[in-house]
């Protein structure tokens, strides 16, 4: 399996409207992709398709060797990790659970522990706690954690069942600068495992070193997809974000400025 992910001429229509049009995208072994686009550009729709929660209206898809239309897709979902700031809507279910319980529950892809946990599962959760430098939070219930700590716990949890592909959907939204940098540091832990990631964001400075490739999307169509330095350019991002922008690179990390005043 050379391609972790392959989409050919994929379109997704809803209410007579093309939400995604003619998407062609391949993610190969060793690549980690950032996805950039404005609100409403189609990023979540694209994630819903590759995680098999929506089925395309047309086109061919294969993810982790599962061909849509031929394979049993619930098995595919078990091999994909998913972390999204919208997972916080489950907070009420887990507010009294400790970080150990939340991380270990990742093995069963459930919020809340309903199955028997074996000693080796607790040991694995403990290893993740160490790797993600969460030791000082051991024994703490979720409700007492800061937003940044919660995101770090959820990322550790997503690795509990060794996904081959991890989707990070705006994992830094709403975080302060320190918490954001602490979450971004975790990509190093992810790439140390046999796991590749897709990172969705509006903010190009979150495209850290471990992100090798970028797909930019506008109005449901791909503007550009390829190696990071070929896509994160003034012309491509000006089109993606629908306003004149300038990219500045600092120590291999891109930053964006707006070229002139924009009137709403
Ligand atoms: N199930 C659906 N039925 C109808 N329209 C939908 C559906 N899901 C998404 N859309 C529409 O498709 C467009 C793209 O939405 P999507 O959520 O994929 O964008 P996004 O890039 O993830 O936006 P954001 O950054 O705000 O999360 C929007 O106009 C949205 O209203």
TrEMBL record:
<dbReference type="InterPro" id="IPR003439">
    <property type="entry name" value="ABC_transporter-like_ATP-bd"/>
</dbReference>
<protein>
    <submittedName>
        <fullName>ABC transporter ATP-binding protein</fullName>
    </submittedName>
</protein>
<keyword id="KW-0547">Nucleotide-binding</keyword>
<keyword id="KW-0067">ATP-binding</keyword>
<dbReference type="InterPro" id="IPR027417">
    <property type="entry name" value="P-loop_NTPase"/>
</dbReference>
<dbReference type="Pfam" id="PF00005">
    <property type="entry name" value="ABC_tran"/>
</dbReference>
<dbReference type="InterPro" id="IPR017871">
    <property type="entry name" value="ABC_transporter-like_CS"/>
</dbReference>
<dbReference type="InterPro" id="IPR003593">
    <property type="entry name" value="AAA+_ATPase"/>
</dbReference>
<feature type="domain" description="ABC transporter">
    <location>
        <begin position="5"/>
        <end position="244"/>
    </location>
</feature>
<dbReference type="GO" id="GO:0005524">
    <property type="term" value="F:ATP binding"/>
</dbReference>
């Amino acid at each position: 399996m050379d391609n972790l992910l392959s989409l050919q001429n994929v379109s997704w229509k809803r209410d007579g409207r093309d939400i995604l049009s003619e998407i062609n995208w391949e993610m190969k072994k060793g690549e980690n992709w950032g996805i950039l686009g404005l609100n409403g550009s189609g990023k979540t729709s694209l994630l819903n398709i590759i995680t098999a929660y929506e089925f395309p209206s047309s086109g061919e898809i294969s993810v982790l060797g599962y061909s849509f239309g031929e394979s049993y897709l619930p098995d595919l979902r078990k091999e994909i990790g998913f972390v999204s700031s919208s997972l916080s809507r489950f907070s009420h279910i887990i507010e009294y659970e400790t970080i150990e319980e939340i991380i270990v529950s990742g093995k069963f892809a459930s919020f809340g522990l309903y199955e028997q946990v074996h000693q080796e599962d607790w040991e694995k959760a403990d290893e993740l706690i160490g790797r993600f430098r969460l030791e000082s939070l051991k024994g703490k219930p979720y409700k007492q954690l800061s937003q940044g700590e919660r995101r770090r716990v959820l990322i550790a949890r997503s690795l509990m069942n060794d996904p081959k592909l991890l989707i990070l959907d705006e994992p830094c939204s709403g975080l302060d600068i320190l918490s954001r940098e602490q979450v971004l540091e975790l990509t190093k832990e992810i790439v140390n495992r046999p796991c590749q990631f897709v990172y969705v964001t509006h903010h190009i400075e979150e495209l850290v070193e471990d992100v090798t490739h970028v797909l930019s999307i506008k109005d449901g169509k791909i503007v550009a997809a390829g190696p990071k330095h070929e896509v994160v350019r003034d012309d491509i991002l000006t089109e993606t974000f629908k306003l004149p922008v300038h990219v500045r690179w600092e120590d291999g990390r891109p930053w964006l400025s707006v070229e002139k005043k924009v009137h709403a």
